[in-house]
Amino acid sequence: MATADQIKRLVKAHLDGSDEKFKTAVLQIAAYEAKQNHVNFARELKKLVDKPQIPRANVVPINKTNPMLHMSIPNNRLDSLIVSEEIKERIIRVLNEYKNRNKLKQYGMDNRRKILIEGHPGTGKTYTASVIASELELPLYTVQVDKLVTKFMGETSAKLRQIFESVESNVGVYFFDEFDAIGADRSLDNEVGEMRRILNSFLQFIEQDSSESIIIAATNNHKLLDQALFRRFDDVLHYSIPSKNEICRLFKYKLSVFEKDFIPSDKLINSSYSLSHAELIKVCDDAIKDSILQEKKITQSQLLKLINERMTVYSNKEA
Question: Which CATH number applies to 65-239: 2.40.128.110, 3.55.40.20, 3.40.50.300, 2.40.320.10?
Answer without folding.
Answer: 3.40.50.300
